[in-house]
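Class, look over these structure tokens:
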Amino acid sequence: MRKVSMLILIVFALCSTANAQYSSKKRTGFKVGLNYSALRIKGVTSSSYSDFKIGAVVGLFREIPLSERVLFQPELYYSRLGGKSNDITTNLSYFSIPALFKFHGKKLGFYVGPQASLLLSAKQIDAADTKSDIKSTLKSVDLSGITGFDYSFGKEGAYVVGLRYQYALNNIVKNPNPAGTGLLNYSVQASFGFRF
């Protein structure tokens, strides 16, 4: 929890620094969307991917110009990830904090950056519909890389649709046994948002 608090403070410190130079151009937005996610299942000698599952995304973003064509875009959002393998569905809920740098034209933007996600809940459901809580076996913070693009439209670019790819930077299993095994989060996210 301390790590996440520090990350939030760093994001808001960066916002304040950029804000001092470009305060007239900052914008805030709200977005909703869907994740199409899977888990990479690492074995000792090989790895495979689970079947994909769909989960919800909802949150806020902030656009802070750093130059004419570059924005810093921190976000705060709730995200459902996971996958399905061997009749077992894994549902993971996260509070995610991306820190994105966006290169944009008039309507089209491309962004990239790191993301830290705090694990809120982790449950597995088997073929008999039996639920089990696996949160204690997973790391509390998941680190990812984000890359994607968005398209703005409407009056003054008030609306935005986006597509992004989330790729894992770490194993989410707390104590892998045997060593070298584990789970990693991957997803494709589609979203719709509006700026105000």
About this structure: Residues 2-22 form the longest helix (21 residues). The two ends are 31 Å apart (CA to CA). The first strand starts at residue 27 and ends at 42.
